[in-house]
Amino acid sequence: MKIEELIALLSLERLEANLFRGQNQDIGSPSIFGGQVLAQAMAAASATVDGRSVHSLHSYFLRAGDKAKPVVYEVDRIRDGGTFATRRVVAIQNGKAIFTAAISYQLAEQGFNHQCDAPAAPPPETLESDQGYRVSLAHLLPEDQREFFARERPVELRPVAPEAFYSDKSGPPEQMLWMRAVGKMPDDPDLHQAVLAYASDFYLIGTSLKPHGVKFFTGEVRSASLDHAMWFHRPFRVDDWLLYVMDSPSASQARGLNSGKIFSRDGALVASCMQEGLIRSVTDKPA
Fold first, then answer.
1. Active-site residue identified among 46, 201, 248, 272
2. 83-110, pLDDT tens digit by residue?
3. Is domain 3-107+124-281 given the CATH code 2.40.160.210 in the classification?
4. Is 201 a catalytic residue?
5. Cα angle vertex 50, ends 107, 80, to 5°?
6. Domain ranges of the chain
7. What predicted TM-score, i.e. pTM, was given to this entire model?
8. Is 227 known to be catalytic?
9. Taking the CB of the first residue and of the last residue of the chain, which one, N or C, has fewer CB atoms within 10 A?
């Protein structure tokens, strides 16, 4: 998928004042990519808000989406205050909710300012894209997942330590990569936020598997996003290089908790995210 195709995917059809319809891009995954639903829900909510930008969102993935059918997004305008506005979005297929999110917007304000430091990382120009690594490993996946794993993406990812990134050896629950939209994007802050939300869903769950020597392509684990939260701290452009720093503080009960911090190239912390995902061994069954 090219970045122009992703931008088109986020241009939803408006059916009513608070009702939108989005199409799907078949990227080879068994169901709709969670990052797509997350980004389209943001696009739907943002279409009902003027003069404010997203500062936080909290979402839940409820059911697997059918990529052969469009998704309807229903927006509830919960509150429009002097500074903040709140929207609730439900993504619907076949009359059932597959995803829900609460999204909060804020007018730009001045105030106290501090942040954690960005970790040291080699410049993105010295690293290779993950595309080559994914193509070389695709044969290890089940046949119905190979296309999804190896297909070109609208956001280029360059792992800082690619050998460890794709290794099935155990290691610390942390990883870093540079990411950037492949191509120039319009000067629309809402669109840049939506594309970053889309990209933030790549590899985040995998961080919680690293201590266990298990990767998605080994066929030993079933995984799915359960929820996703994001906070947007400072302005950014997703067509400039961003450093995505991930770690996992805990895994238990067949769930892995993963944290992400996203820095601009000059070291500004632009966004943070948290995601809990199902990471169930194929040999384990729910009690």
1. 201
2. 999 999 999 999 999 999 999 999 999 9
3. yes
4. yes
5. 70
6. 3-107+124-281
7. 0.92
8. no
9. C
